[in-house]
Design brief:
Length: 482
């Protein structure tokens, strides 16, 4: 199979993430104003519950399968055999997830208060099983992934404006969300025949996959507990309104995180491929470049979101959500931790088959997450959940640094991070002094983004930041060939 351009892959995955960003920027202000904090909180609570059953259905398969499939993607027979085995395991895990969900309705009274919503959101469990999205990641088919994703988001956008008209339409909103996120996975299953044969009758060997899959399953369990625990505990301890506030704050923060981590994750299949082929120099070069890119964008994004928390909430969610502004500022600080974890996990831990460290990190973080949420939500409500989240998110990269240090310890990486930090401080100083007293939120947002971006970019170019020079080189090369 011919090698695809890493720069093109990163660009396509970035475009997909931009679409993921634009979609909620358009839909979330509309939905939050129609559904109000209570309706939005109900949907977010149901989705948070389903996240736990998705852990069972996905079983940690996605990361493991993408890594292993990337190594054998040039051998169609071996790849087909591997995909049949993984899909078989996925079917069993999906059945188990639905059995446990049915038991939940019997034994957990609060589930029945959200019965219809939970059933609607549970469709994600089935779609995730048949979607084999990891397969297209392994083959680096980012063009197909991006086009497919954009099409389903456009359909979902039209459906939202046509069908969600009043606060009672939160069931429809939940269904549209499911369709937008995983509806395209149905297309994957039939499109896969272009590359592999899923229906050939051969003996399948499942046992060899179980140990690594269950290691990733443990990681996935702890990760999902960390990501969904805040909303679930807020729902039980503070109610739908608190969940709605937290959802608004976290939604905007998550958009920024996904833009950056999407670029990072693009390089995982190629990193695994290079390691399998013993191309050490190419592998280390990827690590160095991606490290620079991650912090080049994460640091100014953190500062920008911290400064714009209040105007962004007021503009995109409405004045009803302004009580969540302080929580959003706290969550913005976590961007650095999320991006660091993504960088270390996707480029070092997973390709190097050191996932036991990820497991240890996530279990430790999950333990602290439960403890801190109980302690802080009771006292500080939504703000307490945000503080707990950020503290916990910094635990994971700290643990992952130990097995990763020898791959990232270099003056080049340290210099790029320090230069990005310096540029961020200069940028923040400029936008804070220039725009803090302007009352029009739209003007503040637009002026801060434009001015901050220009100031930051010029500063990094002037001090000759390696990442800035690399990005300028790519941009100029594309202009010459255009």
């Amino acid at each position: 199979m011919p090698q695809k351009s890493l720069k093109k892959n990163a660009l396509l995955n970035f475009i997909k993430s931009v679409l993921n960003t634009i979609y909620p920027i358009i839909t979330f202000p509309y939905a939050s104003r129609i559904l109000m904090p209570e309706g939005l909180g109900k949907v977010n609570f149901a989705n948070s519950i389903i996240e736990y059953f998705l852990i069972i259905a996905e079983l940690g398969i996605s990361t493991y399968a993408a890594r292993e499939a990337a190594k054998i993607r040039d051998d169609k027979d071996r790849l087909s055999q591997f995909c049949r085995e993984i899909l078989s395991i996925n079917i069993f895990s999906t059945i188990a997830a639905y059995i446990l969900l049915a038991a939940g309705f019997i034994f957990v009274a609060k589930f029945n208060e959200y019965r219809i919503l939970i059933i609607i959101c549970s469709v994600k469990i089935l779609f995730s099983a048949v979607g084999i999205n990891w397969f297209y990641t392994a083959l680096e088919e980012y063009g197909y992934i991006t086009i497919r994703h954009a099409l389903f988001q456009i359909i979902s956008l039209i459906a939202l404006f046509l069908l969600v008209k009043n606060p009672e339409d939160y069931h429809i909103y939940a269904a549209i969300g499911v369709f937008s996120n995983v509806g395209s996975y149905l297309v994957n299953f039939f499109h896969a025949k272009k590359f592999i044969n899923l229906f050939q009758k051969t003996r399948i060997e499942l046992k060899r996959h179980l140990k690594p899959i269950f290691t990733f399953f443990g990681i996935s369990c702890a990760t999902k507990i960390n990501s969904a625990l805040d909303a679930v505990m807020l729902g039980f301890m503070s109610g739908d309104r608190a969940v709605g506030f937290y959802a608004a704050a976290f939604k905007l923060t998550k958009l920024v995180i996904e833009l950056i981590t999407s670029v990072i994750s693009t390089f995982m299949p190629r990193s695994s491929y290079y390691l399998e082929a013993n191309k050490t120099d190419e592998y280390r070069n990827i690590i160095s470049n991606v490290c620079g890119v991650a912090y080049f964008f994460a640091l100014p994004a953190t500062a920008g979101l911290f400064f714009l928390a209040r105007p962004l909430l007021n503009t995109f969610s409405g004045k009803e959500y302004l009580p969540a502004a302080q929580s959003m500022k706290i969550l913005a600080i976590g961007i650095i931790a999320w991006c660091t974890s993504s960088f270390l996990g996707h480029l070092i831990i997973t390709p190097q088959r050191k996932e036991r460290f990820s497991l240890a990190a996530q279990i430790t973080a999950a333990f602290f997450n439960i403890f801190l949420n109980v302690l802080l939500i009771k006292k500080y409500d939504v703000l307490g959940a945000a503080i707990a989240t950020v503290i916990v998110e910094f635990i994971t990269p700290i643990i992952l640094l130990f097995p990763s240090w020898k791959y990232i310890k270099s003056w080049k990486n340290a210099k790029n991070i320090l230069q990005a930090l310096a540029g961020t401080l200069v940028m923040y100083g400029v936008i804070y002094n220039a725009f803090r007293n302007i009352q029009n939120d739209t003007v503040v947002i637009l002026c801060s983004i434009i001015t901050g971006s220009i100031v930051y970019a010029l500063f990094e170019i002037l001090i000759k930041n390696d990442t800035a020079r690399m990005l300028c080189g790519i941009f100029m090369k594309k202009n010459k060939t255009a």
